[in-house]
């Protein structure tokens, strides 16, 4: 297996707040990484650094062995599906796809034809001529998935990619992830939905308060932590055991 | 294909020499121009998606009208220095207003970063695309705003004047663009993104008001005879007035001016924009960081609304009314798109009485009140009807599902709360402004009448509300508000306002009649507010 991504001593501060503290990990081709952590743990910041959206960080990021700071060519090899997609809402899906294709150096007609086939799988092929501002949340997310995968990237960064997507499409998407893995693609999957991460991932990276505190396969981690689910491991390592008490408090307020 | 792109293609070689990926830059600019066409200008009253391309063209027509107006004034001015200075003043003002209201979203864009910068595109290509996009916008604005004035300059001084004029306009554009950016970033540096959004919204409202009605005042206030004979006299403080710098080259080249200050002005007009541009390039990295503040979600600043709290307690008779009152206040405070429609409509309420007085010939102290001027204040009631029509709409209309999901039934109380909000938030300030103007113009002559108009307004509010409010408040998409202005409702409003005005005028025919009329109104107000508030049709 080839190493496709490496982070070495990556740290990042926002003002006085240390968001990432000496992050080190590497990812091999064909791996599905489940990148988990609570809100504000540093997941999105890590992804933004890898994508080049944040460049004033300490340490180094390597993609396919090349240091990426200040570079852009490596972005041809990566795809990104964000949780909430920024899109030009007044464009039609076709215009948007054509534009994204051009940014990746694709022929715009070829990009539209390819996207049409991919959208067909998610049942939104008829939306090609519709303006994006008329789309439902699920349709936007499906379009975002298509736009992020359009250029056949080697590494896919998925940040909560399933928000608003219908159950059938979720099943299709999970299958797609597995099949892409089999084709040697690398998936970096960041999510709060631990059941999905547990089922999909080969390896778990758990980040808490800017530090990677767990790195290993799901089985290894469960064995090591003597737990039976990712959820209970997550609760143990993040020190969160108040869920029952908080639920009681909510129900009390609800009933009053 | 957009003509701007054809022109851009002519410069492909230069861009490529500068290290820009031209194909990508062109794709970005082309997409941005499509988006511009589909986005209605902020000042447009028509912002529905299907109508936005039409509004886009109407926006240029407005620029052209203002450009012709500027050219007419410049044609009248004979002093070479002041002629260009007047043009520069008007051009600075209008271009800044348009840039802020229409193009702030480009200057402060954070979407591009997430859409484009995650792709294999050099940041230089993105920066140049942004610059080219803004440059195309400003060129289009320049053609319509400055084009007619350029014709006047060519007719006056010959074709060489066009060259000087175009060069000066480019420097003005640079100065406007950079100063706008600097002000934005100063606000972002010391405050939060929310304050900047509020400032931009205020400027959009101001521009809309100005374009809706302001020109009527401007035309009446300009004394064309004195403009014709104006001459410029130098003062040391003029070194700090950029508008005057731009007059200097014309005075030197065409007016034969030789004074040293003219050369200093000319040097300043080149040096200040150029140095500012260098600063802009140096600071652009810090500015990018500051833009991140805009990415944080919109949050209302923690302000105490003590007056509103107190008013709610005094005016509202029960909890539902009180909640509705505060809810309507919150929506009308925070819905920027709704405010963009309400304030221009409301401004006619104060402007129409003033215009009527102007039309009657008041200029200075010679004017004697005829005794019926108070009747013009009834235009406020007509203007308030626009607000009452608009409280049916909101840009966040989807939130009104709570009315439906809660199975809420006390709609009359909700309407009372909303009407009291309109009364306190819009009617009282406009009436007070009208009162101040009237007292300034006519001293104490109309004091009692102003009070009667105010009381009439309170009485008329539920009646006009009955015409316009028929569903849940803020229940319809704001875009639909362009389609529902019906003449019959407006006529009914004018009839109601006219009836109150007629009764008021009639009361003057009886001794102490106005006092008696005021007392009768005060007695009837609670009854009107009890029995004649709008009823829900749901």
Q: Which features does this protein show?
A:
heterodimer; A: 256 residues; alpha/beta; Rossmann fold; 6-stranded mixed sheet; 4-stranded antiparallel sheet; 10 strands; B: 538 residues; mainly alpha; two-stranded parallel ribbon; 74% helix; 1% strand
Structure write-up:
The complex is a heterodimer of chains A (256) and B (538). Chain A has 256 residues and is an alpha/beta fold. Chain A has one domain: 3-Layer(aba) Sandwich (Rossmann fold). Chain A has helices at residues 43-51, 93-103, 108-121, 137-149, 167-182, 194-200, 218-225, 230-238, 243-255, and strands at residues 3-14, 17-28, 32-36, 58-63, 66-67, 78-81, 155-159, 186-190, 203-208, 211-217. In chain A, the strands form two sheets. Chain A has a six-stranded mixed sheet, with helices on both faces. In chain A, helix 2 crosses helix 3 (108-121). The longest helix of chain A is centred in the C-terminal third of the chain and has 16 residues, at 167-182. Chain B has helices at 3-10, 12-17, 22-38, 52-76, 80-107, 111-116, 123-157, 160-190, 193-221, 224-228, 242-245, 248-253, 260-295, 306-315, 319-334, 336-359, 379-390, 401-405, 411-442, 447-468, 487-507, 513-531, and strands at residues 393-394, 476-477. A two-stranded parallel ribbon of chain B has the order 1-2. In chain B, helix 14 runs antiparallel to helix 15. Chains A and B meet through helix 2 of A and helix 3 and helix 6 of B.
Q: Quick gist of this model?
A:
Chain A is α/β, with parallel strands linked by helices.
Number of strands of chain A: 10
Radius of gyration of chain A: 19 Å
- Biggest sheet of chain B: strands side by side, in what order? 1-2
Q: Quickly count the domains of chain B.
A: 2
Low-confidence regions of chain B: none
In sequence order, what are the helices and strands of chain A, one letter per element? Answer: EEEHEEEHHHEHEHEEHHH
Note the gap between the termini of chain B: 49 Å
- How would a textbook summarize the main sheet of chain A? 6 strands, mixed
The averaged pLDDT of chain A comes out at 89
Query: Per CATH, what is the topology of chain A?
Result: Rossmann fold
């Amino acid at each position: 297996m080839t190493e496709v991504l490496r982070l070495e001593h990556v740290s990042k501060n926002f003002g006085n707040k240390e968001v990432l503290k000496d992050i080190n990990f590497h990812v091999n081709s064909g791996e599905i990484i489940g990148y988990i952590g609570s809100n504000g743990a540093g997941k999105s910041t890590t992804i933004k650094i890898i994508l080049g959206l944040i460049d004033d960080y300490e340490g180094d990021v390597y993609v396919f062995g090349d240091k990426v700071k200040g570079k852009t060519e490596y972005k041809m090899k990566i795809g990104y599906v964000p949780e909430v997609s920024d899109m030009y809402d007044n464009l039609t899906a076709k215009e948007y796809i054509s534009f994204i294709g051009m940014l990746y150096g694709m022929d715009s007609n070829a990009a539209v034809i390819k996207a049409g086939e991919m959208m067909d799988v998610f049942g939104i092929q008829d939306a090609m001529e519709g303006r994006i501002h008329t789309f439902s949340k699920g349709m936007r997310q499906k379009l975002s998935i298509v736009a992020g995968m359009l250029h056949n990237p080697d590494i896919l960064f998925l940040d909560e990619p399933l928000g608003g997507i219908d159950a059938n499409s979720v099943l299709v998407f999970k299958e797609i992830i597995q099949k892409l893995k089999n084709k040697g693609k690398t998936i970096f999957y960041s999510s709060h939905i631990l059941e999905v991460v547990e089922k999909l991932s080969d390896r778990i990276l758990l980040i808490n308060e800017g530090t990677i505190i767990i790195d290993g396969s799901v089985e290894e981690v469960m064995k090591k932590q003597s737990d039976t689910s990712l959820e209970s491991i997550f609760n143990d390592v993040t020190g969160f055991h108040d869920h029952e008490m908080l639920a009681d408090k909510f129900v009390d307020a609800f009933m009053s | 294909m957009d003509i701007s792109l054809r022109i851009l293609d002519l410069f492909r070689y230069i861009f490529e020499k500068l290290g820009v990926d031209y194909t990508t830059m062109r794709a970005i600019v082309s997409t941005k121009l499509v988006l511009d066409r589909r986005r209605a200008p902020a000042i447009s009253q028509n912002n529905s998606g299907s109508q936005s391309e039409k509004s886009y063209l109407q926006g240029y027509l407005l620029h052209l009208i203002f450009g012709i107006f500027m050219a007419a004034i410049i044609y009248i001015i004979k002093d070479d220095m002041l002629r260009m200075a007047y043009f520069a003043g008007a051009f600075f003002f209008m271009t800044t207003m348009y840039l802020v209201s229409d193009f702030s979203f480009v200057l402060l864009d954070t979407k591009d970063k997430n859409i484009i910068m995650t792709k294999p595109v050099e940041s230089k290509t993105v920066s140049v695309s942004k610059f080219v996009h803004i440059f195309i916008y400003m060129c289009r604005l320049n053609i319509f705003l400055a084009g007619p004035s350029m014709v006047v300059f060519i007719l006056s001084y010959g074709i060489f004047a066009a060259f000087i004029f175009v060069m000066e306009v480019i420097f003005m554009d640079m100065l406007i663009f950079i100063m706008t950016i600097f002000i934005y970033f100063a606000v972002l540096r010391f405050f939060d993104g929310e304050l900047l959004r509020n400032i931009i919204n205020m400027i959009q409202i101001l521009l809309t008001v100005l374009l809706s009605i302001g020109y009527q005042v401007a035309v009446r206030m300009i004394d064309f005879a004195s403009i014709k004979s104006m001459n410029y006299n130098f003062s040391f403080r003029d070194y700090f007035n950029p508008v005057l710098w731009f007059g200097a080259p014309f005075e030197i080249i065409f007016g034969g001016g030789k004074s040293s200050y003219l050369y200093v002005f000319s040097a300043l007009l080149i040096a200040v924009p150029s140095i500012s541009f260098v600063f802009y390039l140096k600071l652009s990295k810090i500015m990018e960081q500051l833009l991140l503040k805009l990415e944080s979600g919109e949050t209302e600043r923690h302000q105490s609304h003590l007056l509103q709290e107190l008013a709610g307690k005094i005016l509202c008779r029960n909890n539902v009314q009180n909640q509705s009152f505060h809810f309507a206040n919150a929506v009308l405070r925070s819905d920027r798109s709704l405010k963009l429609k309400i304030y221009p409509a409301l401004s006619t309420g104060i402007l129409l009485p003033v215009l009527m007085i102007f039309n009657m010939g008041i200029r200075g102290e010679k004017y004697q009140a005829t005794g019926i001027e108070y009747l013009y204040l009834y235009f406020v009631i007509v203007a308030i009807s626009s607000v009452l029509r608009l409280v049916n709409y909101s840009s966040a209309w989807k939130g009104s599902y709570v009315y439906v999901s809660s199975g809420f039934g006390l709609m009359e109380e909700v309407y009372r709360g909303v009407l009291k909000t309109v009364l306190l938030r819009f009617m009282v300030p406009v009436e007070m402004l009208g009162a101040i103007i009237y007292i300034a113009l006519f001293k104490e002559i109309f004091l009692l009448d102003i009070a009667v108009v105010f009381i009439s307004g309170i009485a008329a509010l539920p009646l006009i509300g009955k015409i316009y409010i028929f569903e849940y408040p803020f229940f319809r998409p704001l875009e639909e508000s362009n389609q529902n202005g019906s003449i019959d409702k407006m006529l009914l409003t004018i009839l109601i306002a006219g009836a109150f005005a007629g009764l008021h005028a009639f009361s003057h025919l009886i001794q102490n009649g106005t006092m008696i009329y005021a007392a009768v109104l005060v007695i009837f107000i609670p009854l009107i507010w009890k029995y004649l508030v709008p009823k829900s049709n749901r």
